[in-house]
Amino acid sequence: MGNSCYWHVMESPVGALLLVSDGRSLQRIVFQGAAARGAVLAEGTEDQRPFGPTIAQLREYFAGERRSFDRCLGAAGTAFQQTVWRELQRIPYGTTISYGELARRTGSVARAVGAANGANPLPVIVPCHRVIGADGSLTGFGGGLAIKRMLLELEGADCATDLFSPRPDRAA
Q1: What is the pLDDT of residue 59?
Q2: Which residue is catalytic, options 5, 72, 128, 159?
Q3: Annotated catalytic, 159?
Q4: Which residue in 108, 136, 26 sits closest to 71, CA to CA?
Q5: In this predicted model, what pLDDT tens digit does every residue of 124-162 receive, in sequence order?
């Protein structure tokens, strides 16, 4: 398929996901409404064929039948970003870690890993949603905190009960 850009919009429980590929590897997953969407649609060719295995694995994940992905990933990033993204893939399904813990694991600082986490072009597959604040709060997610919450609930994250319980001052 050459050096072209291919895209396909997949419906999911968290909304439409724009998948982007160079025909060999998955380059990006963009949540509906993200700024990059227009440029990709204008430059690339809509074609579902490069995404068959990715779509199948994402559907299995959303159905609760898959805990990890084995796609050929081609996300571009700095050496540091790549290090952070590899570490994200080591966070087990259904668990969370803090930005501070991610920084410790990568030999960096929380602010730097937070920026690399935020630049992750392959959310869901590279599970940046599994990183939370030191106090257990949901912070920073490109798809929005509601989607981060849905993904953690889907995985039955260890802290999901505590994180998602309504605050007493909001009880009806």
Answers
A1: 97
A2: 128
A3: no
A4: 26
A5: 999 999 999 888 888 878 888 889 999 999 999 865 444
The SS3 of residue 37 is: helix
Exposed / middle / buried, residue 71 (Cβ in 10 Å: 0-12, 13-18, 19+): middle
Q: What domains can you pick out in the chain, each with its CATH number?
A: 6-62 (3.30.160), 79-164 (1.10.10.10)
pTM for the model stands at 0.84
98-117 mean pLDDT: 94
Name the residue among 125, 126, 124 with its Cα closest to residue 116.
Answer: 126
Q: Which two tokens stand for residue 119?
A: 């630049």
d(CA 139, CA 128): 11
Check residue 171 and give its pLDDT: 38
